[in-house]
């Protein structure tokens, strides 16, 4: 905690900023300080308004409160189990079976107040479990018991958050399970200072909240780069052969099976898997093809690199081929030398200090909080196929005589249509994750995307792209908002970097101008707001036919615009 406090007090200038208001029915000053320090340690300045004790209703219900004057990006509602239990014990016996519904009604009313006409994300703490043992284990089937109602309330919050536009539960149950309730909660510290956690657990609680904030800011990992020998299986395949590696239901092989199973679940939720191994390629691939107990298969990897080159160089090749930021990668290797070499050569990459015992791999990585998510769409499960196709395109480009010949041979087709409900989750996700090709870096939730789609003063377009190698899915979104009767302003233009330099940018600008003209607008104004990551699009408007009118703004006349050449046809 002392280290986090020091970081919070000495935050360097120039970091990306997030404004967080903290309200609670318990003492929140310590967790607020820890959140700020954790943010600095991860390269983000979290500016915090820490309101007074037990002021949730006063802050959310008063339009003139300091919370609303602060204009936060997010609000943390920190609620403690001790206060909940106090309310429960003062609830008449006949009302206890509906206690959870009553509590959730009060909480959801606060969400509605915060969301009323405001663009703010709400981080709602779930209640840590506490069993008063009044009924022993029988309480689990007794609707009038406290533990029954607490669990029901947590489920109501989770279900409500899934339906709400901008609510994200902060679940502290994992580190409670990891360390035990006695280490996480302190009855003495609550009695003396109304602290919701024991002092030693506050950094862990702060990390849970900070992980959510980073995900909301688009700071999420996208690809897990994996070693093979003694990481995905026991033994060295080049020495013992496929038949000699340890994987399956016996001995230490169970640990590697569990690890692969966990990785496969991450792949299903949209994480990319990549191989970076010092091995002969045919020997490295053979277990995935021929070993009957292998959980992961070759098709589960977006890219497979096995050779004898230094791993930092191969990781750079993986990043270049997948066309994602280096800070989107996490490298997992059992070998301390390889981990240290990658850390030294690529400081942006995340490299966990893996435990020596493979049986601890899953528990350790779960506890690291590396894979926080604030959205999930059906398209996520097919992300690996998209990136495998991209690797094929990279190889095809190398074989062509010219880049124009390569683009013409891709046989690209795009769909450009107004936002539809099917794509709302993916558009929101692209908004939250895109950092490089993001002209103004505005983030939207799924609910906000739905509101924009229904707004008659907005012109929206989503874009999909496919070619002879496969379907890339939804890769770009544009939101243009009415400024006046003649003018549209490009509020948002985001695009997946994996389709850069295929004349998709040209195709999109052409359709933006066409859509604006069709809606009766004479002018389109675009804006570029610089961030540490979006330098690649600094000149995009000027390059594609807009005229610069200020340091940050560009405009185009829909009647005289000269359309850009593109190798993409509309499907």
Description of the molecule:
There is one protein chain. Strand 4, helix 7 and strand 5 (167-170) form a beta-alpha-beta unit. The strands form three sheets. This protein has an eight-stranded mixed β-sheet, sandwiched between helices. It has a five-stranded parallel β-sheet with strand order 2-1-3-4-5, with helices on both faces. It contains 23 helices and 17 strands. The chain has three domains: 2-216, Rossmann fold; 223-367, 3-Layer(aba) Sandwich (Rossmann fold), CATH 3.40.50.1000; 412-570, Gcn5-related N-acetyltransferase (GNAT) (Aminopeptidase, 3-Layer(aba) Sandwich), CATH 3.40.630.30. It is of the alpha/beta class. The chain has helices at residues 2-9, 29-41, 56-61, 66-70, 81-89, 99-115, 146-163, 173-179, 181-184, 187-193, 202-216, 237-240, 253-268, 281-290, 311-322, 336-345, 361-367, 383-399, 403-410, 424-433, 446-454, 504-518, 540-543; strands at 17-24, 45-50, 74-78, 121-125, 167-170, 223-226, 272-278, 303-307, 329-332, 413-417, 458-467, 470-484, 487-495, 523-527, 547-548, 553-557, 569-570.
